[in-house]
Every structure is written in structure tokens, then in C-alpha cells.
Design brief:
heterodimer; A: 10-stranded mixed sheet; 9 helices; 13% helix; B: 5-stranded antiparallel sheet; 4-stranded antiparallel sheet; 14 strands; 21% strand
């Protein structure tokens, strides 16, 4: 209905009634409309926070008796009301464009209403009218009617909300998060339910794999929507959700959908809860809710931050794609995702870091089948054991994992933290990269030391182990070859055959140790220290005591010692002699180069003289 | 007089130990791939391989020395590496060059052949074998000679250093030869009625037959849950709580004592061919308590336990 025709109609309807009014006859109540500036249609729904603009009062007239008879008075707007009290009361004023708002003193200038920011619900606004008690034609005074409130314009102020991501949540593979979006109020000013089609949209990261060193290609070897290859979104909607139609962005040639980034409510509704699945430990995504209804459309507003229309998953205020909760908890030296500032243990004091960026420490990797993240203050180092044997089919360990993880081996005090990985938890050769599924914020490839059983006699005869290069991989890869045969030869076997070279060697050793009588009781001279021909009742027993391994060290002890020593080379490679050193502490340092079968093998790297604990590094 | 000799002796010991300490050579040396000894020519490599097999099996150290010395005289310090022959016959795809250490380890790391190639790969140097043969022969002068050469080349494992050190002490005392006791009359050796094959200079015997003849309780069963596809158990005679498990294609022995296992190594991996499981005789003989053995006239002869 147009303004002009309405005012004429009102006047015609009211005039007969007013003819009889003699005293305190309030002017016929006017009203107002809210028009859309663009279409000149009335507006009945407005988004919360928007200015109700283009309020246009209708015309109003008043008739009172003057000495000349019934005469028309002027009616003016003396105020406006939203029928609310106290803090809920909105504000009337002037807006030139629907965004700027200026309070005005003159109610006649009002063309806009600014609701209180939190107001949602049915809005009623109306002008307050009063007459000017002077006849228009005679100029004679008339009765001064009381002000009257016009007929209110009713409309619905609505809002569309969405829940945020919990602060203390960080991405975890296959974890689901639910988000609810809802429309307020539930019914409009006409009593109709406020419902619409609610759509959720995801804009996800696509990091390769689901952490730095693992990738799930599919369920049971088949392609699956929740595979974690590089082409998969790190966050997707669960494809099957009650009340939703979930749509993939892509599909395989076979027609299997993936990257489910759109979820749409199947029916119009007032509230919808959608489930998002995390498929990457370092993933991030932006979730948006959108509603399309008879009342309008728009993106959902965060209930925790009404100025925001996007839910960042995880909570990440500094936008570095690392969950704030993780950062706050560990308080890294820097929050730059590319930083590599691990400080502990100090090592050579000049080379911070371990090669993994802050983001990569956060994203983590699989450690013997279990995902782990890494402390951004602590330098981490990785090792893989290719002599650990198999369970199925069974093959015994040549180098038991215990020999690598034993507290008496590497790393010991003051050294980097060592993580033993499974063989498939790295990629490449001879540089076995542990962060091979890198994406965002990658500094460099980080290598695992490779421990492999082998035979080194064609290079270093009788050596127990050989190291090929430093952990940082330049110029050669950190490969460690362990020769169990040579170790076992050193361990010796029961002394039942003097003509076995190893046994004879052990007899010589007794002599070399200046302990021929203590350890080789039957040794009258070193020539006969391993007399096993049973021509003496104590022969076998004496011979058994007479070996390199006079303290009866176990194979495990020696392997722990040797592997620890070789791992030491990988972090001391830049030092003279690749870490081997002399000095007062040499003998008690794991880098001491001789497996001398002492009763208490070294279990730590030295603190001083020269102090291997302050000589190592992990970064080039 | 005795007192004087003793004082000279300990002075020498001290001197040698000090010299050794100050030299600080490497027992677990960093690999210097760029300065490895040259690879021996084919015919020389074959001799080194034979010498290696002789020493590993406790057979003729004299022949082993002679073979290695021939190589040394002609080619100097050279190295050789090889895989067992059966591996070439059974491999489903080409094997890496055994002299290419990184390629061999790479095969293990990347799981290319499903076998521990780095352990199946055997290698030696001319002087390493000369040193080992000298030790087996108990010749102290040779031990010192080749040992020092090894040490100078960076092969300074503890056992080499201590062996050289002990040999030096023996020489100081005027003793040149470790006394051998293998003077048993050949007449008391007896032949074993056991067929065998020689491969890569190792004497290999069919496990089931050998067990019967040597009196070793053995079982061989098909077991896909065991590496190599066979469950092979050998019980130590008279020590029933000690059981050995062998694995086809792996130079490994798992020694189970009261159920607790420890892995030991074999110089030659058992393998199966034509339904027969072949194992190195030297290892079986050791388990059977045979002190000495040798091959003569196409037969294996053993000395009494």
C-alpha cells in the first residue's frame, strides 16, 4: 500500500467520528511503516544489529470545534516509542544510508531505529502524536488533546547463531566436533515459526597424510572418503548425518565422493547440529553456517564473538594454524609456525632447534604406531631400527629395540630426546625422512638415524659398529651398521675349544689386562691360560672366566653400549674425530671408542673434558 | 734374576699400554665411504671368499693365509663382498652389487627383497683375512705385522688392538708361536656317512640327515608364521632346556634357554632347495660337540668329541 492512499483513507474513516468530539479528543492515531529503500516494499524482518531504516510515519489529522465549527488541527510527531523499558529500549534517530546513525532532537526527523545490540524478537515501533490546538482555517484555538501513541509497526528482529570451537580442543585424527546453528526468535511477529534452510560450509586445509609421517589411504586398502592423502580435506562433514544432505566437492572416477564440505538441512528448521570430522593432526578449517529463510538470509554469527561469522577450528587467534590451546599450554619460544627454537638440551649452545618447525612439532608424527606431538622447547631426534625382527612371520631381533631405548644407552643426560620409530614411519633412502608428509610451515627434511645389522669386515675388520654420517645428513646419511657377529665374537662363547681363534684371543686378553692369575686361575703362563683339555679339574671353569668378557656382560649390555656410541657419532659428527676424544673423562663417556668389556660400561656422555653434552647438535 | 725379568716385563707392558692409549684409534670408526680399499678383481675376490669360509668354519688356516697372501701380494689391500650363491638362484629380482654397501642397506630399509641382505652380505679385506689367519695359526709375528697394518688402515677394534698387544708381549718374551694341540692322529678320525655339498666354500649338509647322524634332536615343520616358512628347532644334546631355532634365508640362530631367547649369528644362512634344508656343517658340528672336522676324499671326517 502506498503512503498517500493510506493517509487519505484514514482521514475519510476518522472524520465522521471526530465530528462529535468536543473535549480531549486525541488525534486519530497515526502509524509508521518501514520501507525497503531499494524496492519501496515494507520490511517486516531485520537482522539483529541492523538499523531499522526508512521509518516513514503515516499522515494523521485531528478535528476539534472552534467558534467556527469543526475544524482541522495540525498533528505533529512529538516522540517515538518501541514499547520497551529500561535497558532494552532502542534508539530513534536519523540515518542517511542505513548504516550511519545520528540521534536527533526533533522527532519529525526520525527515519531510523537502532535496536539495542542484543535485542532479538518482535519489534513494535510507533510515533507519538499530538495536535496543535489551533484551527487550520480560522486560526482560532481549539481543544488541546493529549498526545497519543500511533499504531505500532510490527516486525521481527532475528539472528542466526552458531556455536564456537571449544578452546581446549586441538586437531586429532577421527575426532568429531559438533556445531549447532539456530535462529532466534523461534516465532515471528505473526506467530509463524522462524525456520529456514540451514547450510554449513567448510573451508579446510589439505595437508598431506594425517600427520608428518602417516597417511591413511583408505579403509582396508580401498579408497575411502576419510583417507588422508594430500587431496583430502583435513576436515569434512560426516557424509551420513540425520537431517542433512551432505555433499562432496569432488568424486573419484568411480563416483565415490570425497571432500564433504557442504551440509544442508534436509528440511527447513529453526536449529541444526552438524558434525565435522577431523582427519589431520595439524589441520585447520573455517566453518560457516548460512540460513536461507522467508525472513532473509545470512551467515551465522558466533555466539562467543558476535562480530565474527566464521568458526575457526581449532581456536587460533593469531592465525598461525596452531591451536591456541596447545601454544598456551606449552608456551613455545616463538609462535612463528616456521620457528625452530628448541633450546633444551642445549648441546653446543650455538645451534638451536631440531629441524622440525613449531607447526611440525604440533602436528606430530607416528611413533611406533602411536601418534605423538613434540615439545617445542625440547630437541627431538629420531632413530629407526631395521634389526628389530618381525612378529609375523616371526624373525628374532638382531638388534632388540630395548638396546636402543635402554636408559643406559643413548641419549643419557644432556643429550637430545630420542624417539624410536617403526621402519614405515619414515620415507626415503639413504635419507630416511620422518617429516616426509610435510605441507605448511616446513623448514627442512628431518632424518631418522638408520640402525641396521650388517657385516663391516670388508671395511673395518672386527668393528662392532660403523656410522656413516651425521643426523643432519650432510654430506652422508645417518646410517649405523651393527655387526652382531663381531660383537658375539667379543662376547665369546663357552671356552670349550682352545683352538677357536676367539677363545685364544680371550686368553691373550687376560694377559694384556695384567690379571693372568686373577682371571685365568689356571694360567701359569699366558700361553696356557685357556687350557681346556680337561687335564685339570678346573679347566672348563677357569676357561669360562677367561675371556674378553670377563665381567660376563650380556649381549644386550654390549648392544646398548655400541648403539649408544654410534648414535653419539651422528650428533657429534662435526667435532674432531667425529666425536671421539681423549681427556680425563674419556673412559667414562659413551663416545669412548673401545668396547673394552668393563664391568660398568659407560652410560652417559661426558659433562666436561671436553664435554660431549655441550658439543652435539641436530641442525646443520 | 726373576725379579729383574719381571720388572722389565711390567715396564714393557706399561709402555705398550701407554702407546696404545695415546694412539686412540677408532674401534667404532666413522664410515669413510670415499676412502674404502679398492674392490678386489674377480679372481682375487674368489680367493678372499674361500679364505673367509675356511676361517669361519675352523678349517685350514694355512690355506686361508696362503690365499689371502696371494691376493695381498698381487693387489695389496683390497676388499671383496659377496652374497651366498643360493640367494642369486632364489632371488626374484636383481640383487644389488654386494660391494655397494649403501645399495645393500637400502634394500633392507626399503624392504626390497624381504631378506636381511645386509647380513647375508659377507665381506673381507686381504689384510683382515691375513690377520685372522695369523691368529688362527697362532703366529705372533704375523699377528703383529698384519694387526698393525689393520690398525694403520683404521681397523682398530678393541679385539685387534688387544690381540696385537698380547702378541707383542709374547714376542718380547721370545715366544713366536701359540702352541697348537691339534695333533690328534688322523687314524682316530672317522668319516661321517653324510652327503654334503660345498657352496661358497662352505660345507653344507641336509639338516634332517645330519641331525640323525650327529644325534641332534631336530624338527623341521612347515610354518608360515616363521620367517623363511619353516619352523626349525634343534635341541642341544643333554641340555634339553636349550633350543636353537634356525630361519631359512637368515644367517641367524635364536638360542632359547628356558624360553628366553637370544639371537646369534651364522656365517652362512641355511636355505631350502628341492625340499632339502641345507645348513652349514660347522655350526651343527659345534652343537654336536665335535671338536675338529675336515673334508677328505669326498667325505667329512670328524675327531672325537
Amino acid at each position: 500500500m502506498e503512503k498517500g492512499s493510506l493517509s487519505v483513507a484514514l482521514w475519510m474513516a476518522i472524520a465522521p467520528l471526530k465530528a462529535k468530539a468536543q473535549t480531549n479528543d486525541p488525534p486519530p492515531s497515526g502509524s509508521c511503516y518501514v520501507f525497503s529503500p531499494s524496492s519501496s516494499s515494507v520490511v517486516e524482518y531485520s537482522r539483529r544489529g541492523m538499523i531499522v531504516w526508512e521509518i516513514t510515519p503515516t499522515s494523521a489529522t485531528d478535528y476539534d470545534f472552534t467558534p467556527w465549527g469543526l475544524e482541522e488541527n495540525f498533528v505533529v510527531i512529538v516522540g517515538w516509542t518501541d514499547f520497551m523499558e529500561g535497558e532494552d529500549r532502542g534508539e530513534f534517530g536519523y540515518s542517511p544510508d542505513g548504516y550511519s546513525f545520528y540521534p536527533v532532537n526533533n522527532p519529525e526527523w526520525v527515519n531510523a531505529y537502532r535496536p539495542k545490540p542484543g535485542f532479538v524478537g518482535v519489534l513494535r515501533i510507533a510515533p507519538i502524536l499530538d495536535d496543535i490546538p489551533i484551527g487550520i482555517y480560522s486560526g482560532m484555538p481549539t481543544y488541546d488533546d493529549d498526545p497519543v501513541t500511533g499504531e505500532p509497526w510490527k516486525m521481527t528482529i532475528w539472528e542466526f547463531w552458531i556455536t564456537p570451537c571449544p578452546y581446549n580442543w586441538r586437531p586429532m585424527l577421527d575426532e568429531d566436533l559438533s556445531f549447532t546453528a539456530w535462529i532466534e526468535p523461534t516465532t515471528d511477529h505473526k506467530g509463524n515459526p522462524m525456520v529456514g534452510t540451514i547450510i554449513f560450509l567448510l573451508d579446510s586445509s589439505r595437508q598431506p597424510g594425517h600427520c608428518l609421517n602417516a597417511c591413511r589411504l583408505g579403509s582396508e586398502g580401498e579408497w575411502a572418503w576419510d583417507g588422508t592423502t594430500g587431496c583430502h580435506d583435513d576436515f569434512q562433514f560426516l557424509p551420513e548425518q540425520l537431517g542433512f544432505t551432505v555433499l562432496p566437492r569432488n568424486q573419484t572416477p568411480e563416483g565415490i565422493g570425497y571432500n564433504y564440505d557442504t551440509a544442508m538441512s534436509s528440511l527447513v528448521t529453526n536449529v541444526a547440529t552438524v558434525t565435522v570430522r577431523c582427519l589431520d593432526y595439524g589441520g585447520w578449517t573455517y566453518l560457516m553456517g548460512y540460513v536461507i529463510g522467508f525472513f532473509g538470509e545470512g551467515a551465522a554469527r558466533r555466539i562467543d564473538a558476535p562480530d565474527l561469522f566464521v568458526v575457526d577450528i581449532p581456536v587460533d587467534k593469531n592465525d598461525n594454524h596452531i591451536a591456541d590451546h596447545w601454544e598456551d599450554l606449552l608456551d613455545p619460544p616463538s609462535r612463528d609456525p616456521l620457528s625452530d627454537d628448541d633450546i633444551f638440551n642445549e648441546g653446543d649452545g650455538r645451534t638451536d632447534g631440531d629441524g622440525l618447525s613449531l607447526y611440525e612439532e604440533y602436528r606430530g608424527l607416528m611413533v611406533r604406531g602411536v601418534w605423538d606431538d613434540f615439545h617445542p622447547w625440547i630437541k627431538d631426534m629420531f632413530v629407526m631400527n631395521f634389526g628389530a625382527g618381525n612378529e609375523n612371520p616371526y624373525q628374532p631381533a638382531v638388534i632388540p629395540n630395548d638396546a636402543i631405548t635402554d636408559a643406559k644407552g643413548f641419549p643419557g643426560a644432556g643429550m637430545p630426546l630420542l624417539w624410536l620409530l617403526n621402519a614405515n614411519e619414515g620415507s626415503g633412502y639413504p635419507f630416511r625422512v620422518v617429516n616426509f608428509l610435510w605441507g605448511y610451515a616446513h623448514r627442512r627434511d628431518v632424518y631418522a638415524a638408520i640402525v641396521v645389522p650388517g657385516n663391516v669386515d670388508d671395511v673395518y675388520d672386527k668393528a662392532y659398529g660403523v656410522t656413516y654420517g651425521p643426523i643432519w645428513g650432510n654430506p652422508t646419511a645417518p646410517i649405523i651398521e651393527i655387526d652382531l657377529e663381531n660383537i658375539d665374537e667379543g662376547l665369546g662363547s663357552p671356552c670349550n675349544d682352545c683352538n677357536q681363534p676367539a677363545n685364544r684371543g680371550t686368553c691373550w686378553l687376560c694377559f694384556g689386562r695384567q690379571q693372568p692369575f686373577q682371571h685365568c686361575g689356571h694360567c701359569q703362563t699366558f700361553l696356557y691360560c685357556c687350557d681346556c683339555d680337561n687335564d685339570h679339574p678346573n679347566d672348563e671353569q677357569q676357561c669360562g672366566e677367561c675371556g674378553y668378557n670377563i665381567h660376563n656382560l650380556s649381549q644386550h649390555q654390549v648392544l646398548t653400549w655400541v648403539v649408544g656410541h654410534e648414535l653419539g657419532h651422528t650428533v657429534l659428527w662435526h667435532q674432531p674425530d667425529r666425536g671421539h676424544h681423549s681427556g680425563a673423562t674419556t673412559y667414562d663417556c659413551l663416545i669412548w671408542e673401545y668396547g673394552d668389556w668393563r664391568v660398568n660400561p659407560p652410560t652417559e656422555f661426558c659433562v666436561q673434558n671436553p664435554g660431549c653434552q655441550t658439543r652435539w647438535k641436530l641442525n646443520p | 734374576m726373576t725379579k729383574r725379568i719381571r720388572s722389565i716385563y711390567w715396564a714393557l707392558v706399561t709402555l705398550i699400554l701407554l702407546t696404545w692409549q695415546s694412539s686412540l684409534l677408532l674401534a667404532s670408526p666413522p664410515m669413510r665411504l670415499e676412502s674404502l680399499p679398492p674392490v678386489a678383481p674377480k679372481e682375487a675376490a674368489e680367493k678372499l671368499k674361500q679364505a673367509y669360509a675356511l676361517l669361519e668354519q675352523g678349517l685350514s688356516a694355512e690355506l686361508a693365509y696362503r690365499l689371502a697372501y696371494e691376493v695381498y701380494q698381487k693387489h695389496g689391500i683390497v676388499r671383496a663382498a659377496w652374497f651366498p650363491s643360493w640367494l642369486y638362484r632364489q632371488a626374484k629380482k636383481p640383487l644389488p652389487d654386494p660391494n655397494d654397501r649403501l645399495a645393500v642397506i637400502g634394500s633392507v630399509v626399503e624392504g626390497g627383497h624381504g631378506l636381511p641382505l645386509s647380513m647375508l652380505r659377507r665381506g673381507a679385506t686381504s689384510i683382515g683375512l691375513l690377520f685372522r689367519a695369523s691368529c688362527a695359526l697362532g703366529n705372533y709375528e704375523e699377528i703383529v705385522k698384519w694387526g698393525e697394518m689393520l690398525i694403520q688402515a683404521g681397523n682398530d677394534s678393541y679385539s685387534i688392538i688387544k690381540t696385537v698387544e698380547s702378541a707383542r708381549l709374547a714376542l718380547v718374551q721370545g715366544i713366536k708361536q701359540y702352541p697348537h694341540r691339534r695333533n690328534l692322529s688322523k687314524q682316530i678320525w672317522r668319516p661321517l656317512p653324510l652327503k654334503f655339498r660345498e657352496e661358497d666354500y662352505f660345507i653344507l649338509v641336509p639338516l634332517d640327515e645330519a641331525c640323525k647322524i650327529l644325534g641332534l634332536p631336530c624338527t623341521i615343520t612347515t610354518n608360515p608364521k616363521m620367517a623363511g616358512g619353516k619352523g626349525i628347532r634343534i635341541v642341544k644334546p643333554y641340555v634339553p632346556n636349550i633350543v636353537y631355532r634356525l630361519f631359512l634365508g637368515r644367517p641367524l640362530v635364536e638360542r632359547l634357554e628356558n624360553g628366553k631367547g637370544q639371537t646369534e649369528t651364522l656365517a652362512y644362512a641355511p636355505y631350502e632347495e628341492g625340499g632339502v634344508v641345507w645348513v652349514p656343517f660347522y655350526w651343527l658340528a659345534k652343537q654336536a660337540g665335535i671338536r675338529w672336522w675336515e673334508v677328505r676324499d669326498g667325505k667329512i671326517y670328524v675327531a672325537p668329541k
